[in-house]
Amino acid sequence: MSWGFLRDLLSGVNKYSTGIGRIWVAVVFIFRLLVYIAAAENIWKYEHDEFECNIKQPGCENVCFDHFFPISHIRLWALQLIVVSTPSLLVVFHVAYRENREKHHNQKLYKSPGEIDGGLLCTYLISLILKTGFEVVFLVLFYKLYNGFKVPRLVKCDIRPCPNTVDCYISKPTEKMIFICFLVATSCLCIVLNLSELSYLIFKHSIKCYLKRYIKKHQ
């Protein structure tokens, strides 16, 4: 698939993000998207063909592979990248709504349509909460589906139509585990960045509201 749309989306959101948000965009684009396209995708490209069991019973190997890899790592990562980036569309749509509203009324309604305040602040905070939630959900999903983040060299399978317990071997387990750990680490980093930006915006907005009340009170 072409990742041009996701790249354009992240570039568009970058214009309306805070400094922490721009770091998040850089991490997603460089350490997740580019690593996925350049390296990770090729490592799992032939995972089914390279999965071998020490038996030639028809159907046994396919059933065992489906049991240990219910969803392809690479497809699940692609879905994760798309899903965690989608909430950023809320911010883009909100800014577009502001710009269209100004155009419709033919007057300046906002200091800057991309300035994070008022309704756009709420939209931005919701997008951060959604991104963080999706990241956590996918990490839990990875952990549950694959019994942790380790890739074993040998797995034992006794599922029918296998006549008995057979040994199955996963190719390049060490290399795969390194990339899994790297992508999990970058996902955790994105969660930390999202929570940091969320805390920063809430703190900044709280200070702003407090100062307004303080000035109004003393006036």
Q: What secondary-structure arrangement, pairings included, does this model have?
A:
Layout (H helix, E strand, L loop, with lengths): L3 H11 L4 H25 L8 E2 L6 H9 L4 H13 L2 H18 L12 H28 L8 E4 L8 E4 L3 H46 L1
Antiparallel strand pairs: 1-3, 2-3
Helix pairs in contact: 1-2, 1-5, 2-4, 2-7, 4-6, 5-6, 6-7
Organism: Pygoscelis papua (Gentoo penguin)
Keywords: Cell junction, Cell membrane, Gap junction, Membrane, Transmembrane, Transmembrane helix
Pfam families: Connexin (PF00029)
Explain what this protein looks like in three dimensions.
The chain is 68% helix and 5% strand. The protein is built from 7 helices and 3 strands. It has helices at 4-14, 19-43, 60-68, 73-85, 88-105, 118-145, 173-218, and strands spanning 52-53, 154-157, 166-169. The mean pLDDT is 81.
Summarize this structure as a short list of keywords or feature phrases.
mainly alpha, 3-stranded antiparallel beta sheet, 7 helices, 68% helix, cell membrane, Connexin_N_sf, cell junction, membrane
Which term fits the overall shape? elongated
Helix content bin? 55-70%
Largest sheet: 3 strands, antiparallel
Gyration radius (Cα, Å) is 23 Å
Residue share in β-strands: under 5%
Which strands sit side by side, in order, in the main sheet?
Answer: 1-3-2
Mean pLDDT: 81
First and last CA, distance: 60 Å
Low-confidence parts: none
Global structural class = mainly alpha
Element-by-element helix/strand order: HHEHHHHEEH
| Number of helical segments with 4 or more residues | 7
